[in-house]
């Protein structure tokens, strides 16, 4: 299988500009990667695509504030045959040489995230305190973290000593023509409908200045496309998939409904 000749199981990913080559270099040079960007803009899809392209297994961990070091590294469990050690997902990734993707890493407590430090610098080691072992990362192991900056994150941020271990990729919504191609492909709709949805999305994103805290992501535009493709009337689909998820505020909902009406006449 050649990289330029995508196999049928290649995840669909439309490149924005240079991120594929940059990621490949990071992988080759054993550099950890941080993907920053708003919800639904393609971070997870990019990692899935890169794992496929680099032919590495992908192990994804969703971070939350109860996540403990044991959840990542592993724990002793009591079974029929006595007590046995069970690797956590991070340890499995380290042993297998997988790409380990920690989604929404700022949700994890800082004392949990510290376990990543020796893995994300030249040491490439995972010390397992509970067993006394130190596992060297297999070739191909790569740490990738994602987060959504400026998202009610006044109190939560990463320590500088964590941040500075990663090469950062800035993600954002693609330019309109590219976003329309993505919506058409993923929503399985005609290009003209995809363009109309992206035009609506662009207008709705401008409501940020009028207080809309969450603006529509590519994911929401795709959801609307799928509903319309399934036969739901355009206005209903846009309301259910785009307007209602974004706000409960009557004035903003009204403004968004008006934009939907003006976009599909
Ligand atoms: N560049 C792209 N190429 C192909 N599909 C894309 C691209 N960008 C976005 N998408 C589509 O948008 C959807 C949402 O993207 P994805 O799940 O990767 O977002 P995300 O940035 O990981 O969001 P979150 O922060 O909420 O996890 C994908 O399932 C895919 O259909
Ligand atoms: Mg994601």
UniProtKB/TrEMBL annotation:
Task: From the Swiss-Prot or TrEMBL record, give the protein name.
Answer: CbbQ/NirQ/NorQ/GpvN family protein
| CbbQ/NirQ/NorQ C-terminal domain residues | 179-262
Quote the Gene3D superfamilies the UniProt record gives. P-loop containing nucleotide triphosphate hydrolases (3.40.50.300)
| Residue ranges constituting the ATPase dynein-related AAA domain according to the UniProt record | 33-166
One Pfam short name:
AAA_5
Entry similarity comment: Belongs to the CbbQ/NirQ/NorQ/GpvN family.
Keyword terms, alphabetized: ATP-binding, Nucleotide-binding
Origin superkingdom: Bacteria
